[in-house]
Write a structure and sequence with these properties.
Blueprint lengths: L2 H27 L2 H5 L1 H27 L2
């Protein structure tokens, strides 16, 4: 991959990511249940972020046996 194509892909990805996050915030921020329970939404985001690590840990322990 050339430096130019890397920079282009990186910029397109950054703009897409920021746009997705901003639009999600605008959309979900206007839903009353999300507004009133934002702390639960934050805990849910943290849980979903940690979930792949927990799944891998459980899978690794089950493969190694007792």
């Amino acid at each position: 991959m050339t430096s130019r194509s890397f920079v282009v892909y990186n910029l397109v990805g950054a703009v897409a990511w920021v746009s997705l996050c901003l639009l999600s915030g605008v959309f979900f921020g206007n839903i009353p249940i999300v507004k009133n329970n934002f702390s639960l939404v934050t805990i849910g985001i943290v849980f979903v972020s940690i979930l792949p690590m927990l799944v891998e840990l459980i899978a690794r322990r089950s493969r190694s046996g007792p």
